[in-house]
Amino acid sequence: MSEARMPFDPIPPSAGDHQHDLGELIPPQPDEEYFERVAARQVLEAEERQLGEELETRKRMVSFGVPVKDVEAIAIEALDASEAMKHIVRFEGLEEYILILSGPAGCGKTTAAANWLVRPAGKLTAAKFGLKLRKPTFVTAARLFRTSRYDTDAMAILEKASKLVIDDIGTEYSDQKGFVTSFVDGLINERYANLLPTVITTNLRVETFTERYGERVARRVRTVGTFVSIATAPYSGRPTGGQDGERT
After folding, report:
1. Which of 2, 38, 75, 92 has the lowest CB atom count within 10 Å?
2. Which residues of 4-29 are buried (b: 16+ CB within 10 A; e: fewer)?
3. What is the tens place of the pLDDT at every residue in 178-209?
4. Rounded average pLDDT over 203-218
5. C-alpha torsion sign, points 176, 99, 61, 191
6. What is the pLDDT of residues 25-50, one digit of tens each?
7. What is the pTM of this model?
8. Around Cβ 86, how many Cβ atoms within 10 Å?
9. CB atoms closer than 10 angstroms to residue 124
10. Based on the number of CB atoms within 10 Å of its own CB, is 127 exposed (0-12), middle (13-18) or buried (19 or more)?
């Protein structure tokens, strides 16, 4: 008589059962070609991310008012090679709030200023006190002086921009009634009072700038900023052998 089995006893394998070969259960190991494909895909994805980031940066510049020609220049030029860019980098690291870049056409001052505009703002003292700021703004002198001082919204954009670039000031018509001088004085004084960073580009020398816009504006610059005369040859995207800019 066979011995009775308990309900949960393991059933012994029958003669027809067989064990699987363990080698069949181990997946094949990736070969060298597989790793090359993975590496190529990672490079492609990195390039796509970089292109996407560059496109977003260009869109931001245009939304801030930067002219398309300068957006493209920033994308293709070796910015660190320009004397203007060196002064921008220095300005970012100081407790200064006004930088005036003076120099001839082609010295890279507009491109450097536009590049500064889209960098993260590092010195927004006004924001700590709850001042409601507007987005960074790039405005040419021609557009600036078409703005009505009685247009509250337009003036708020200029006065409360977290960063402001005024490009090519000094090329505008100097009226005899003092509108230009009064406009610049009021705008600079408002931004000075709130310690909001401002970069101005011009081809005027410091004496002419002071004569045109007044001693009070010049005093504001001396108090919280710097007037830099760029004494290099026109910028071509390559380092030049010019001397450092004259600082005032």
Report:
1. 2
2. eeeeeeeeeeeeeeeeeeeeeeeeee
3. 888 899 999 999 999 988 999 999 999 999 99
4. 92
5. negative
6. 666 777 788 878 888 888 888 888 87
7. 0.70
8. 19
9. 16
10. middle
Alpha-carbon distance 121 to 136, whole Å?
9
Tell me how far apart the alpha carbons of residues 117 and 71 are, in angstroms, rounded to a whole number: 11
Q: Please report how the helices 152-160 and 179-193 are oriented relative to each other, as an axis angle in degrees rounded to 10.
A: 50
Helix (H) or strand (E) holding 63: helix 32-64
| Of 144, 176, 142, 172, nearest in space to 158 by CA | 144
For 205-216, b/e burial (b = at least 16 CB within 10 A) is: ebeebbebbbee
Predicted confidence (pLDDT) at residue 213 exceeds the cutoff of 60: yes
Across the beta sheet with 164-169, the strand order is 137-140, 164-169, 198-202, 98-102, 225-229, 246-247
Q: Using alpha carbons, list the distances in angstroms from residue 244 to 55, 120, 216, 236, 241.
A: 33, 26, 27, 17, 9
The C-alpha atoms of residue 118 and residue 155 are separated, in whole angstroms, by 21
Longest dimension (CA), the chain: 128
Per residue in 135-156, pLDDT tens?
899 999 989 998 988 899 999 9
**Confidence check: pLDDT of 1 > 60:** no
